[in-house]
Design a protein that fits this description.
With 198 residues, this protein is mainly alpha-helical. It has one domain: Four Helix Bundle (Hemerythrin (Met), subunit A) (Up-down Bundle). It is built from six helices and two strands; from the N terminus they run H-H-H-E-H-H-H-E. Strands 1-2 form a two-stranded antiparallel ribbon. Helix 1 runs parallel beside helix 3 and helix 2 packs antiparallel against helix 5. 32% of the residues are buried.
């Protein structure tokens, strides 16, 4: 495994792992749903770090390795950039994931949110995908699939909560023009809006 590519991958997960402490509001708690969602965030970098440390190599043709390493670097670079773009979009921290009593305080539809509804989650999915590209293995692919399922379910619950909130009408319009994790082609973003919500 290419050590610089693995190092960038691990750095990406260090950035992700720091978010609950440096960005999210401290009034939440690490409940069972949070830990179940967080599971692949710990296992994916641990598995790749162990593989790199002991010198395990994925079973892929040698001719693929440089291309896979470049793809993993690109995925991690975009993931890290998207995390910092999203951080820069927020004026106030948001609640930890899966907080049942978290009423939306504002609605953010500008910056990173102008094209996708869940840019943090999209960045996390890119990180999981980079593990499967960097070290193609049944475990990294399974962790990507688990992470996608967990984040997709979390996003759906958050969208339901926002649709039923005081910002519901505005949020439903936002849902119609933006993608959950990927931009919707051909949809123009409206002028900047920013109100306090979740």
């Amino acid at each position: 495994m290419d050590k610089p590519s693995a190092l960038l991958f691990l750095l990406n997960f260090v950035v992700i792992g720091a978010l609950p402490r440096v960005f999210f509001r401290s009034d939440g708690r690490f409940n069972r749903k949070w830990w179940l969602t967080a599971l692949p965030f710990g296992l994916s970098p641990l598995f790749v770090a162990v593989c790199a440390a002991v010198g395990w190599e994925p079973i892929t043709p040698d001719s693929w390795r440089s291309g896979l390493n470049l793809a993993a670097v690109a995925l991690n670079a975009v993931s890290i950039a998207l995390i910092f773009l999203t951080l820069g979009t927020h004026r106030i921290p948001v609640a930890l994931w899966h907080q049942e009593n978290d009423a939306p305080r504002h609605l953010v539809t500008h910056g990173a949110y102008s094209l996708i509804r869940h840019p943090f989650y999209a960045a996390f999915l890119l990180a999981f995908l980079s593990a499967a590209v960097l070290f193609p293995h049944a475990i990294t692919l399974a962790l990507f699939c688990y992470g996608f399922a967990a984040l997709n379910a979390t996003a759906a619950r958050e969208e339901q909560r926002l649709s039923e909130s005081e910002f519901g009408s505005e949020y439903r319009g936002y849902l119609a023009r933006t993608g959950r994790f990927l931009p919707r082609p051909g949809r123009a973003a409206p002028a900047e809006t920013s109100r306090v919500g979740g």
